Amino acid sequence: MKKKFAIPTLNEQITPHFGHCEKFAIVDVEDNKVVNQEFITPPVHQPGVYPKFLADHGVHIIIAGGIGQRAQDLFAQNNIEVWMGVQGGTPTELVEHYLENQLQTGQNLCDH
Asked: Structural domain of residue 6, as residue ranges?
């Protein structure tokens, strides 16, 4: 299985505010193992920009704290899974938790 994950970060940790992240961690997985991680700077945030940006980077799965409904809808249109309500952790840790079916999700931390 090859999958590409995106996690919104601030100081290389997941941030609860998807649309206000400093960078996205892009984590590549092959055969259920993390094989690469890079941090990319997103374009200026405007509604609808990040879903296209991440789809263009080949992302399959988003792990986020909070994410607006419009972004969720746009990701769904691009067949990108969204896991939200995640609090704390490095991108690699979070992807490893996902791969082990132990990713703790909860309430969407975004209210818009």
From this structure: 2-99
Looking at the 3D structure of the chain, how many domains does it have? 1
Whole-number mean pLDDT of the chain? Answer: 92
Q: Would residue 106 count as lying in a domain?
A: no
pTM score > 0.90 for this model?
yes
Measured between its terminal Cα atoms, the distance across the chain in Å is 34
d(CA 99, CA 51): 23
Of the candidates 15, 100, 30, 22, the one whose C-alpha atom is nearest the C-alpha of residue 62 is 15
What are the tens digits of pLDDT across the range 74-83?
999 989 999 9
**What is the CATH classification number for the domain harbouring 32?**
3.30.420.130
In our burial notation (b when 16+ CB lie closer than 10 A, e otherwise), range 58-71 reads ebbbbbbbbbbeeb
Q: CA nearest 68: which of 111, 5, 24, 7? A: 111
Q: Over the stretch 86-106, which tens digit does the pLDDT of each residue have?
A: 999 999 999 999 999 999 998
